[in-house]
Specification:
20 strands, globular, 414 residues, alpha+beta, 2 domains, 6 helices, eight-stranded antiparallel β-sheet
Length: 414
């Protein structure tokens, strides 16, 4: 009986073990609809190593949030900062087509944009573009219209133009913006106006102005007091008032109609009237757009300020000549003539339109005759056109960022 009992217990144990083995085999082959196959794994040569690396999830990677339009990655943003500043280009096409381009690149809440102003012959465009790219090249992508525009041909996403830095300068490739120039191939058209970010494009080291500074030491001292110390000068035709008065530069800017937005962005020191004493030329802008120019002129211990609207004083050259445009039919270039509170443009090369009574007109359709002058002498139209092209090819005046360091450096030279 004892042996029978032991045999029964062994049989039950054996059946239990067999049943468990069958259950394990079925579970291991649950994903395979075929007949389960039992196999004996080869023995491992070494104990299995337990990995400390967490298992890789098979779930899809989270989607990167879409950044607002114009916001570059942080690394690209640092590179785009080097483009912040102002750029300009002026073209002339005979017989009477002038077109000025002004671009201001700026940063706003981590995004980079450009205000583009194109103004001249039958053209007025004010655009906002998104800046995309890096420190070597950027693309201007149209975003919206800003202010007055006589046409609206652009759509969001249009590539307006591109800039690329090269040893010879900024290479421009035209896009939807097309110049008047017959040759619209990539070329070196735009010049930086000396206002680029100091992170990578510092202002040029101040150099001696083209005029004989030694003979104008007293004038330079007076200019320095006005620009750095808030001294008054005698303004002969204040913007928006045309009143003569003693005034500081800050008050004059605030009276311009733009309040605190109007700033001096850059300055030049050059002998405009060729009397041996230099003048200081101040470029005044608000919200990235140039509005007027102030010329400081010292005579007999008094500093006079002459104010010019943008059309009356632009494209200052190293020889002191500058362009003027009294409405479309009447334009040219000349030099400044100053005497006390009186200041005028000595027109050297210019064109004038007249009606049938001989009066100067501002409407081209009212013009009966057009006269051309080169070096103060009556000239043919083709001679005038050639002189205007030669004027545009002259080197520009040296401009400096309007900073205390630059003012001190330039005006302290003797």
């Amino acid at each position: 009986m004892k042996h029978t009992h032991i045999f029964k217990q062994s049989l039950v144990l054996l059946l239990a073990v067999t049943f468990m083995l069958l259950l394990c085999a079925c579970a291991g082959n649950a994903g395979n609809p075929g007949t389960p196959t039992m196999s004996t794994p080869a023995p491992s040569e070494s104990p299995a190593q337990v990995s400390n690396t967490p298992a890789q999830s098979t779930a899809p990677a989270p989607t990167t949030p879409t950044m607002p339009s114009g916001v570059p990655p942080s690394g690209a943003a640092n590179e785009l900062t080097s483009w912040v500043g102002e750029y300009s280009f002026f073209e002339y096409s005979p017989p009477n087509q002038n077109l000025g381009y002004n671009i201001t690149i700026y940063e706003d809440s981590g995004a980079f944009y450009a205000k583009i102003n194109i103004e001249g012959f039958q053209t007025l465009s004010n655009l906002i573009a998104i800046i995309q790219g890096d420190k070597n090249s950027i693309t201007f992508v149209f975003d919206s219209y800003d202010g007055d525009n006589n046409f609206q041909p652009y759509q969001q996403g249009d590539v307006l133009l591109t800039f690329e830095r090269q040893n010879a300068g900024i290479l421009t490739t035209w896009g939807k913006i097309i110049p008047m120039l017959p040759d619209q191939e990539p070329g070196y058209y735009f010049e930086p106006d000396g206002t680029q970010s100091s992170s990578t494009t510092p202002s040029p080291a101040p150099v001696a102005p083209s005029s004989p500074v030694a003979s104008g030491a007293a004038a330079l001292t007076a200019y320095r007091a006005i620009l750095l110390d808030g001294a008054e000068f005698y303004s002969t035709n204040n913007i928006n008032t045309d009143e003569n008065q003693n005034i500081t530069l800050n008050r004059l800017l605030q009276n311009s109609g733009s309040g605190d937005a109007m700033k001096v962005t850059r300055f030049a020191v050059i002998d405009l009237d060729r009397d041996g004493t230099p003048e200081v030329v101040l470029n005044c802008a608000a919200d990235g757009t140039d509005y007027f120019t102030i010329v400081l002129h010292e005579q007999d211990g008094t500093v006079y300020g002459y104010n010019f609207y943008r059309a009356d004083f632009s494209n200052l050259k190293a020889d002191g000549t500058y362009s003027f445009s009294h409405y479309e039919p009447n334009y040219g270039f000349g030099v400044l003539e100053c005497s006390g509170s009186s200041c005028m443009t000595d027109k050297i090369t210019y064109r004038e339109a007249h009606d049938s009574d001989g009066y100067t007109v501002v409407d081209p359709e009212s013009a009966s005759t057009v006269e051309y002058f080169v070096n103060h002498q009556s000239a043919a139209e083709d001679e005038f056109n050639a002189a205007m092209v030669a004027q545009q090819s002259k080197p520009d005046a040296a401009w400096y960022d309007f900073t205390a360091a630059n003012i001190e450096a330039v005006l302290s030279r003797s």
